[in-house]
């Protein structure tokens, strides 16, 4: 079987394994206080043009989202997100388990708009009984989104401005950020993210890393005692070196963007082939996830040789399926898939 | 500096890295459904003589404790633990953050006794207003304990029998289980743990693994829908292969016990040297942690060349310090430390 | 000002105060173990035709909903509710604060349908990654609903059957149950509720009681150790006699239904007047809440003399307002309001 | 049976019922925005010499403690309390259910000392791994304590000074404050409490009120959006008038202190009689709770006619029992009890 089900089905960029072997018996402190993690933090701060930022390492995306949101909110606050947002639909209620409501707004191709946030906030502030409901505390978006789409710098800046104008924090989930940074249409840089957000993370797991995500907090004051919060939430790795080395290697020598570029190019090749062969897209995406509408018969036929995700059914009986490429996808596998369409 | 501060200051047993490299580009499913994890589960079930057990992989010890305890308890229940237990003192309130009280009983050298549990439960049941307090739901112990001591099979069996007689579940934290299994005095096997407990974990992080802990649940019915609980708690690794491979390798070819044996032998050599040189032990331990009483001047002198843990002060001004060896400790480093005492 | 803002703006049915005075110095046990509460439980069990039911007394509606839902769910489960449901929009995230997601389905006039529940559950069970999301544990509906509408016995029976077929529990919020029982169109009795639900409550606060709500649990096994849960949640009154006496009096001599009837008759008179005068209803309701569409000028004019709720704006600029009557509404006040329309 | 089991076994001071009847049909806003509650707040602010204070009304003591502590702490903080503190032992884990650890220090006759807080904080700050544990956020004490003892003004001032010096907040549980204010030995006034604490409450339920407790927050900034927190926690009464009227009446015309004085005088009469008849006290208390050591035979004999609390057993087999008087205790009942000793 050839797998297009997700972007974490292989191990990691080989240079990370090389570095693991090279440093295996070096004795270092635990809990992210090792020199590899320190170096990774330095590299990330520099890449973000944000020398004062805190950088915290997590083991995975749901953990990063849930713990960061919990840290940014007080107990009476909730998080505004698109209805398709990962925190709303695919994290087993992790935000709610930590006490916070996910306040959903309808997304357009998986994206929130500044206008939608403003309209909702104005209605909230117009409501006489707003003390009786969850207080909005922050906005959550993903770049790329759950549907593989991208915010432009202007769109993200507008959301940031609106959020901050209403006293809301802004957090950007970058689980697949490499594929966003590498997209042809993208104009949002790490420096932009550091300027516009209160926190964002650079995804490692799905972007060629061995393990982990790197949370960047441009103004560390918004997350006081965050190590204790992470520890309490079971999110501190004793062997912090694993994530430290992952990001030290991944963020050096342009490897992160290269990893993204590989995935994006193959995904876009697949997208063009789908369109040429007359398939309809569910949403047109510039990154490494392609959402296509297939009839059941085609689904069944492709499933014999390829693994991909059943996303949802649509009214006419067709299925939305997702093909996902990665830093490690074999171009020959994409060719085989295209041939089989 | 030579580090005796903990048992997670090096990477991992090299065979794990070899296997990571060998399998790096093999495409597998995520979330622990990969063949490496499946194979690790099979090996662990066999080692425990418990073919029906569920085996769940976690990223670290605090996470395993907090999520398992949360899964085993209902919302009105608490967990009984020794006052020195890791869940009480060193996990940043992780159990409480998930809603449960840690009910502490005085430990003796870090150990609970069946008698103490029975006495507490009898007083609880004798209390007319026991509906007004947290209901006890389970007992938590560590093997080895936080103080490096061990339960004998008879002691553990007595605790299990007492707990179950009162309707309490029993969970054993095996973060350092390799060092317990390898101790000369030990008579508790993996099979015993599978027979006596409702859940226990085989520690990887501190015992030579790259990452992770393996939770064994002899009767899976006590933790229904546990994958969802783990996901909600941010405790599912997308790249489950990392922990899968760790345990596949660690639990094969007697590596786990060998890793433990190496650490224990060096720790015991250090212990004998301390006693010969006239130092007093805070507690006499058969495993890889040695707790000694040092005066401040000796502490300062040793700190110039060695890293170890300041545990606590005692009344006469001396400090309790902990020296910890591991699967990776260099015998020459122990010799140097002994020479410096 | 004449108040039509809600149904808890007066004190209580005078007979309750009489009984409070009469029993004021009688010494009784606390925490709901007093003879008044015991008698109220007996009366309620009889009225429900359910001698084995547990009856628990709470201080208010949000508390009853949040604590009961928390008790009925395990930590990985969520509650299905209409998007307009009180637990979703007006309880400050109380369900989420206790760790559970509110899974919203679109309501029709504030009502869920068995069909909507079935469709959602079938899609859930068809989702390969359903282990990654909150598990549905129960269905929440209100009778009357947040929009003053009523479920028929057939509708409620269909929801109960569907819920139970999928292993979901059913909880009915009866904060305004008196106004439902007294509605001309109603065919759902207390006995029906006891037969169809896993728990429901008889609202006191809004229905003429001094304080409190009476939760009926037909099969007590679904809420083990519920007193401890209530205590933990701050929901046990030391002077349980207050709620006990409230329900002892309220549920005797047909007072509960009479209280409802008074409110419903006046609300329906107001509704007819609104329609006669050419106003449009937002939703046609048979109970004590009337939702009408008013232009801003009429809102302003009426606000000079009457208090009512601004519910929401609609697209054409008109406002949805709610007029609420109660057991205590003065018919002359309704006449004045009608005259002012 | 004559009841000495607690101080909430009767209804309330009759003047409260009179006022309830007098105002029963007055229409007022809900949720504590009624004029009775407003007036009660005014009276309380004046009595505390603290015009800027916020005053929030709760339905009971456990609720007040749990919600206030939750509001004052962030998610990574715990509360320091005496091991005998009500929040530690008698609230079913309410603090933990909201995510916070209760950090217990040994109490002396139920009291914390500034010295104990200082010593604990110094050890905490001396611990290199203090980021791995719950951060202390506040100190909780009761006046009178769970054991009926009182803090002097000097003792309380020392605790306040120490707490604030370490950045900890101070909260005083005044469930039985009337009996403290009325004690002969007492030198702590409401004004002192408003000056020394970050929050304290004036108990109503146990001190002659119909229902409720009044939380005083001298500096409202420490509890932002507290109404929403209360609503989320199920702690807002729709009919706030009940608690408003309770405190309006209770805090007028010296009724609160008079209620306390009645209870204290009878308790002290009982204490003197116990001592005269040769019984030993478990702890010598100046308030309305008397703790005596009785042999089992005397317990059994008294239990035939009197209700009192079994507190605990002591080593020699005797029982500690608690006799509790109240604002409503009949002097003749105390005489009967004394005669029966």
UniProtKB/TrEMBL annotation, chains A, B, C, D:
Domain Aromatic amino acid beta-eliminating lyase/threonine aldolase residue range list: 29-293
Quaternary context: Homotetramer.
Cofactor(s) required for function per UniProt: pyridoxal 5'-phosphate
Keywords assigned by UniProt, alphabetized: Pyridoxal phosphate
Stored InterPro entries: ArAA_b-elim_lyase/Thr_aldolase, PyrdxlP-dep_Trfase, PyrdxlP-dep_Trfase_major, PyrdxlP-dep_Trfase_small
Name under which the protein is recorded: Low specificity L-threonine aldolase
Family of this protein: Belongs to the threonine aldolase family.
